Amino acid sequence: MNRKYFGTDGIRGTVNEGKMTADVALRLGMAAGQHFRDGDHRHRVVIGKDTRLSGYMIEPALVAGFTSMGMDVFLFGPIPTPAVSFLTRSLRADIGVMISASHNKYTDNGIKLFGRDGYKLSDEIEFKIEELMANASELGLAGPGALGRAKRIDDSQSRYIEFAKRTFPRRFTLDGIKIVIDCANGAAYKVAPTALWELGAEVISIGVSPNGFNINEGCGSTDTELLRARVVAEKADIGIALDGDADRVIICDEKGNIVDGDQMMGLIALEWKKVDLLSKPGVVATVMSNLGLERCLSEAGLELIRAQVGDRYVVEAMRAGGYNLGGEQSGHIVLSDFSSTGDGLIAALQVLAAMKRREKTISELCNVFEPVPQILENVSFQSADPLKDANVCAAIQSAQDSLGQSGRILVRASGTEPLIRVMGEGDDADLVKSSVRDIINSIRDVG
């Protein structure tokens, strides 16, 4: 199934080029409106966005597309991706839309779609929407009296804040805890500090001055140097870094050490097992999660189920198997008792709940397992598909044979960029390093 627009997480690209233009957004609105327009009820769409300058271009183009199909549009303004998922269900919308390129710089943007149930769309539905986009001029437009209307929803942020606070155990507060929160100058710049403060924490906010250009710039979950320095300088108990649309989180302990998504999943899994909150004795992660996590969970009698990279594939595996905890090493943590997609703030609140429950520091809590040495390298390419080259395939097989049962090799194409991602892990760090280097060299030889 070849798709022209959708990647692993919606549509994403450089603004005003290729698939991230106002024209594409207009046709997407029309096509998605056509697909979800069924029944005689008044159809509605909810749209949120992060703080990128290009949101001012993409949002009205989507509005034009949806209203031309007779759908009413509710506009939230800057709000996290998980808030759009939640409010899609809460407001009984037919479609939820988030305008964001997540952790990318402001020069990129993207569009993520949610169904009525608040879950991201399946590959099959995305493919059907693409087919409709190709024939947008032939879609059945609404008549002059049946056009949709658009309006701003002023209380969307407060609705999400209250929702997030309710996921924190009622018997606890955050009194006495000092938190540095980095909102990446992105979608959560208002809601995350407010929610933490209302729960009782002393909050020091950074990355909360968006100007349209500085989202994820030297801040957020992909650049934690500022967070680490501030946590140590302020003698804070914890640092929390969100990305541009706040669906992922990275934690920093009181010593300035970074805690990734694997460690957070391990902590939450062990905590939830103790208090009997796991729906199944296992966790869904991706093929990228560290082998150390798998071994840690196994020792606790829990299984690690691996899905392909992308939080929606994690969610699909969770739903299929009945699991309520999953996520990615990058910090997408999905807690399906609360949310139908990754939610950085809610995941951080679960770490804080463990901190309160066990009365331990983050450094004591979050060193759940010893990671197996792991290397991840990205290689840009220009050829059609280097992973089909015989020499590249031979290099990958040779590397896996060298690691044997004590390690793993994973080579995959990025779903959003012209990159090949090469990951190797194993107990022998030198062998892992040389194996990854051999694969990278073979890819570069192909071009």
Q: What does this 3D model show about the protein?
A:
Strand 11 and strand 12 form a beta hairpin. It is built from 14 helices and 19 strands. By secondary structure, it is of the alpha/beta class. It is 37% helix and 21% strand. The chain starts with 5 loop residues before the first strand and ends with a helix. It has four domains: 150 residues, 3-Layer(aba) Sandwich (Alpha-D-Glucose-1,6-Bisphosphate, Chain A, domain 3), CATH 3.40.120.10; 81 residues, Alpha-D-Glucose-1,6-Bisphosphate, Chain A, domain 3; 107 residues, Alpha-D-Glucose-1,6-Bisphosphate, Chain A, domain 3, CATH 3.40.120; 73 residues, 2-Layer Sandwich (TATA-Binding Protein), CATH 3.30.310.50. The protein has a seven-stranded mixed β-sheet, with helices on both faces.
State Rg. Answer: 22 Å
User: What about the largest sheet?
Assistant: 7 strands, mixed
% residues in beta strands = 15-25%
| Low-confidence runs of at least 5 consecutive residues | none
Give the helix level as a range of percent.
25-40%
Number of strands: 19
Q: How many helices in DSSP terms?
A: 14
CATH class descriptor of the largest domain = Alpha Beta
Q: Please state the second-level CATH architecture of the largest domain.
A: 3-Layer(aba) Sandwich
Number of domains: 4
- End-to-end gap: 25 Å
The overall pLDDT, averaged over residues, is 94
